[in-house]
Amino acid sequence: MTISYGSTGTQSTHTNTITPTLVGSAGQLAVLQVVSGHPDDSIPSTPSGWILAGSTSGGGSTFASSAGPRRLTWFVRVLTGGDGNPTTAIPSGATGSLIIGRIVSLSRTAGTDWRWATSFGDDQTSGTGFAAAGTTALSWQSGDMAIIGYGVASNADSFSAEAIAVTGVTFGTLTERADAAVTTGYGASVALATSSVTAGTATLAPSLVATLASASVGIAGVLRVREASSDVNATPQSVFPPRNLVSVTGLEADDIVTATIYRQVGADRTVLRAANGIDVTGTDVLLRIDAEQPFGVSLNYAAELVDLYGNVWTAFSGPITSTVTSDVISDAIRGIGAAVKVESPLEWSRSREATKFNAGGRIIVVGKKRSAPSTTMTVRTITDADGDALNAVLDDLTEGVLLFRKQNSLSRLDGTYALTDDTESPNWYDQIRWFQLELQSTETWADVLEAAGFTLQDIADNFDTLQDLADFFTPGTLLDIALYDFGTV
């Protein structure tokens, strides 16, 4: 895994609005460094389609000519091709205001996406030896790239000997990418440099230093960039009813502490069972079974991942479609189901508690909201195995709730229902049976009830001894077992 420096764009300077020239190509990460000064210490506006990665001012005192605080801001964008030049601004009409921006680009050889985090520090002691200690601890590992930015108050300065240090971490050669003095407004001097981690790991704030040509104060910061390792994969399991194993991997390397998994159909997202805001601190993999997905439609899974800095990232699986040859009644929590055919249209009945009053010849009705719909659903099973399977589902429904899904999903019919009564009518002449199910539309099972996946019994059914299991997965791990589809053994 390697992050490489791409190219450096042209600097753009103005009193309040800039549109720097974009550099880079599709798939690369564009980084916009902005240094600004304003009496209100305003954060520059975020360009359309860009992300504010971090912003801090430093230098102390009062904003003035070659004195007082300057602000350093990082914006980022993963380029898609055909991207336009970004525009960012600070409020206009202020004495001495200035804004300076330049875009650089990075490329990667591996990883699933980009990850970044920022740390800033300032130097309020005027001198030529600039030193700033970052205030936010960042995690560091080999392959990380540090983009280091400086912004000092002097309008006639230059930088040399820029450096970054983190205890226990080795950085490669540091390269200065930009160094410019700006006299617009009250002025500033700006520098940008890059370096990569070649060895070591740590979670510490960086120390940033530089030598200035003349004494000044200001701000410095680092944008730590990493190739993402987190990913989402969805694998259909070889069982009936169909269910999908969803695995979110590579969490530790991306400093992920909280994860939420969604099922996504079109633009609509539904939180997956037992996968809402899960604490994954110190965990590299999160596994969940989806046993409630609609049939006959393409869907994918999205994972919303929060890292230890509060950044929110989203990763997506590829598309997957679950197909069946019948309608299905199931208990997702127990992982069992039956193939059925709906024999009659659903007639929804809704009751409403109400009282009528005759007031001077006028009828006044006072009542509560109408109830959730109830119905009598008639279904047919074709074989004895299907009939027995349906009875097995109905015999011990988790919380008395069943899940009904059409062969091709129909949102107004698919859903969870509370079973109140059922009547079974076997045919005399063949294996066909009719079931009349008295159902009440209801909420789904509690989120704490995780959908059943493959169990220890499934493993026992396929392997005679632990040695057989060990031999089969050599040189595998427990994760290999968790991800394996035992329905194919």
Structural commentary:
The chain has 489 residues and is mainly beta. The chain has four helices and 34 strands. The strands form eight sheets. Strands 9, 11, 12, 13, 14, 15 and 17 form a seven-stranded antiparallel beta sheet that branches. Strands 1, 2, 4, 5, 6 and 8 form a six-stranded antiparallel beta sheet that branches. Strands 20, 21, 22, 24, 25 and 26 form a six-stranded antiparallel beta sheet that branches. The protein starts with a strand and ends in a 6-residue tail after the last helix. The mean pLDDT is 93.
Sheet of most strands: 7 strands, antiparallel
Rg value? 31 Å
β-strand number:
34
Q: Structural class, from helix and strand content?
A: mainly beta
Distance between the first and last residues' Cα:
35 Å
Low-confidence stretches: none
Measured by DSSP, the beta-strand proportion falls in over 45%
Mean pLDDT: 93
The level of helicity is under 10%
What layout of secondary structure does this protein have?
Blueprint: E1 3-8, E2 12-14, E3 17-18, E4 29-37, E5 51-58, E6 70-78, E7 88-89, E8 98-108, E9 114-133, E10 138-140, E11 145-152, E12 159-165, E13 170-171, E14 175-182, E15 188-199, E16 202-204, E17 207-227, E18 231-236, E19 244-249, E20 256-265, E21 268-271, E22 278-279, E23 286-290, E24 298-307, E25 312-316, E26 320-321, E27 327-331, E28 336-342, E29 354-359, E30 362-367, E31 374-381, H1 384-395, E32 401-405, E33 415-426, E34 433-441, H2 456-462, H3 466-473, H4 478-483
Antiparallel strand pairs: 1-8, 2-8, 3-7, 4-6, 4-8, 5-6, 9-17, 10-16, 11-15, 11-17, 12-17, 13-15, 14-15, 18-19, 19-23, 20-21, 20-22, 20-24, 24-25, 24-26, 27-28, 27-32, 28-31, 29-30, 31-34, 32-33, 33-34
